[in-house]
Design brief:
291 residues; mainly alpha; three-stranded antiparallel sheet; two-stranded antiparallel ribbon
Length: 291
């Protein structure tokens, strides 16, 4: 929680005897719920902070209003499950059709000046790279140009992104192969190169903040990544929906192979990926077609 707070600019540490703010906690558990996390995960966070608060002798952020919010989560999840709109543990998936609609929305949005154009290029690169690479939002936020290489083989080419310290792999890196698409408008490789060139990025973080004056700043936070996705996809989706969408579309494309699991870092026995397969109602674990 301390690391999460630091990432989001919240001045709280488990070593201090300062109460954890209720509004921060509401934001945190709502984010977990929107990302498709299980109710047991949310309960675990509630129990941990209630225990910490009791040990420190400070007010607990698990107030009656927060408990009522948790009941609301349960009712919403039950309704979604009944209607078949949600599978426990899975974020809402952004399919290829929705991905293209997001890019169209990004390109058609009215913007002003240099800053507006930079934001457009950055956001479309985040969306396309995030989807085709099955990235977690933290992986996008920490992606560095030094860990992005080009590849070419048998008339095809693209990028390879080396990701370290992933959620499920703390010891070795995961390589994400990003293929060049025939349709330039939806090509993640083109989007990446256009953003890097326009922003004048030579090394360091790939995705960065942009001031109103069009100055490219420091690395974005994972919350910014989430906000970008929500801005073009709508409130029912989150940054994790890009990752969920890649997996779901892979299954829908019905192409043999284990590429999708390798791309997202899912193990061959991953229950999460299996649930994406169930939602897509196709028995194949597959690679997304190069279109």
């Amino acid at each position: 929680m301390a690391d999460y707070c630091a990432t989001n600019g919240w001045t709280w540490s488990a070593d201090d005897a300062v109460p954890f703010r209720v509004d921060w906690f509401v934001s945190h558990i709502t984010e977990l719920f929107d990302a498709g996390m299980s109710l047991s995960t949310i309960d675990g966070r509630m129990d941990a902070l209630a225990w910490w608060s009791a040990r420190r002798g400070v007010a607990s952020p698990v107030t009656d209003d927060v408990k009522a919010l948790r009941v609301g989560f349960q009712n919403t999840r039950a309704k979604e499950n009944q209607e078949g709109a949600h599978i426990a543990g899975c974020a809402q998936a952004i399919t290829r059709e929705q991905l293209h609609a997001m890019i169209a929305r990004c390109d058609s949005m009215e913007r002003k000046g240099k800053a507006g154009e930079l934001i457009r290029l950055r956001d479309r690169a985040i969306i396309l790279m995030g989807w085709h690479g099955a990235f977690r939002r933290s992986e996008l936020a920490t992606l560095s140009t030094g860990n992005v290489d080009t590849w070419r083989f048998a008339g095809r080419d693209g990028l390879v992104c080396r990701v370290f310290n992933t959620k499920t792999n703390k010891t070795t890196s995961v390589d994400k192969q990003i293929d060049r698409m025939a349709t330039v408008q939806y090509c993640p490789v083109t989007a990446y190169n256009e953003w890097i060139a326009a922003a004048g990025i030579v090394d360091g973080p790939v995705f960065r903040s942009i001031t109103k004056g069009g100055v490219v700043g420091t690395a974005v936070s994972d919350r910014t990544i989430d906000n970008v996705v929500r801005a073009y996809a709508g409130g029912d989706y989150s940054a994790h929906s890009l990752r969920a969408g890649f997996a779901t579309q892979s299954v829908l494309d019905n192409i043999n192979g284990e590429y999708a699991r390798l791309q997202g870092g899912w193990s061959p026995t991953s229950g999460v990926f299996a649930r994406y397969a169930t939602r897509a109602q196709v028995g194949q674990y597959a690679r997304v077609r190069v279109i």
